[in-house]
Amino acid sequence: MARFFVSPDDIQNGEILLTGENAQHGKVLRLQPGELIDVCDGMGYDYRCAVQEIDNKTIRVSILEKMESQNEAAVRASVYISFPKADKLEHIIQKATELGAYEIVAFPSARCVSRPDEKSLNKKAERWQKIAHSAAEQSGRGRVPQILILPSYAKALERATKADKAILFYEAERSVTLKMALENSTFSSISLMTGPEGGLEAREVEQAREAGLEICTLGRRILRCETAPLCALSAVMFASGEF
Amino acid sequence: MARFFVSPDDIQNGEILLTGENAQHGKVLRLQPGELIDVCDGMGYDYRCAVQEIDNKTIRVSILEKMESQNEAAVRASVYISFPKADKLEHIIQKATELGAYEIVAFPSARCVSRPDEKSLNKKAERWQKIAHSAAEQSGRGRVPQILILPSYAKALERATKADKAILFYEAERSVTLKMALENSTFSSISLMTGPEGGLEAREVEQAREAGLEICTLGRRILRCETAPLCALSAVMFASGEF
Question: How much is the pTM?
């Protein structure tokens, strides 16, 4: 069955209006009145709908049933990444969305080689959100992860520690593994933080420890800044019973 | 300490000759006679060496100690991927090497959209091996994973099942998780197989099951063909105690 992603604003009075690309896509599929489709609000709900009316630019459908999406992860994993170069950030957003991240949070740290300026940030944020949207759609998710930009490392630490568990991965950590950090604990939300290309400074790692994050290793091999968050997220999804 | 990757052939009679890029790199580092360096043979051994002689194009070093590399994973994980498009294959080779794959095996399957022809294969294989070499070096591995090309899906199945465990990930599998497949079993080698962009055909999955592979899910979200093998590899590394 065809599945469409809409904005929650498009859902009103038991009806949903497909517009723009969605309407075009519906026409390519040659949807007919009466036909059933699924519509996802990107916020965790799916709607089984029947096509009502097709006109030039829109398709109006009526909601038959509202269902909680079955494709969201049980654990809310927030991916905290210190700004890498733009193409890597986009890569992380796409892959972390596929892998089931609840949200993706980017923040600056001392050794960031790339930090978008205020001016270009709005435009970029829009682009990043679109990448998440498209990856959520393709991977069959029920929710589009939000892409958040924080102004400082301190703010990132503060926010990350609000989850049930908060972990910073650091290549110089040797003894504490992610497995140790997850063992014998239950959590429904977790923050997974990683550094930029040049790594985090030792004082930043101490700052994180003081803020309440656990410092863990991702193994003896040095992972690139775009590999580490996806490796950690895959492991957490596995550990929390997703696959 | 500087670390160099050489071919095992360059190691003879207690001495190693650094040539080409290695020699250039040594000169950039301004190595001096007597200085200590580490040399890795890419086969799992590191050599602590002292610089002997520096001439125009080569650096001769003598071996002080041969040590087993500490950075290799305890479990030998072989990544079996059905040919994706070229850029994705290169991405998988780079990332799987970082993540600790023992070897990477590419093979054709029914729905492959991209399959290198015989003619270009040698050139490509050389390029792929170089990518693995460079990723191994950067991530501090002691071994360069071999990139193998198999001529058929049947050959891939046959080879994959020679490991202690062999798993095929299939998006239509719902009940058997990787966790179930790994539980209560010890293994020192594992094959992780995934399909191409268009997925594997149902009959190919049956063929794999008959050959002895376990069929598992990677969760309810559909992963792209370049995401699935890296997600599986990350989870296996986590499950086998690497981090």
Answer: 0.93
C-alpha distance from B86 to closest chain A C-alpha (Å) = 17
ipTM for the predicted complex comes to: 0.93
| DSSP assigned state of A44 | S
Rounded CA-CA distance B158/B151 in Å is 12
- Confidence category of residue A2, pLDDT binned at 50, 70, 90: confident
Residue B225 pLDDT exceeds 90: yes
Residues of chain A positioned with their CB less than 8 A from the CB of B239: 238
Residues of A in contact with B100 (CB under 8 A): 219, 221
Separation CA B36–CA B46 (nearest Å): 13
Given a contact cutoff of 8 angstroms between Cβ atoms, the answer to whether A114 and A83 are in contact is yes
A45 Cα to chain B: minimum distance (Å): 15
List of residues 6+ apart from A76 with CB closer than 8 A: A102, A103, A163, A188, A189, A190
Tell me the three-class secondary structure of chain B, residue by residue.
CCEEECCHHHEECCEEEECHHHHHHHHHCCCCCCCEEEEECCECEEEEEEEEEECCCCEEEEEEEEEECCCCCCCEEEEEEECCCHHHHHHHHHHHHHCCCCEEEEECCCCCCCCCCHHHHHHHHHHHHHHHHHHHHHCCCCECCEEEECCCHHHHHHHHCCCCEEEEECCCCCCCEHHHHHCCCCCCEEEEEECCCCCCCHHHHHHHHHHCCEEEECCCCCCCCCCHHHHHHHHHHHHCCCC
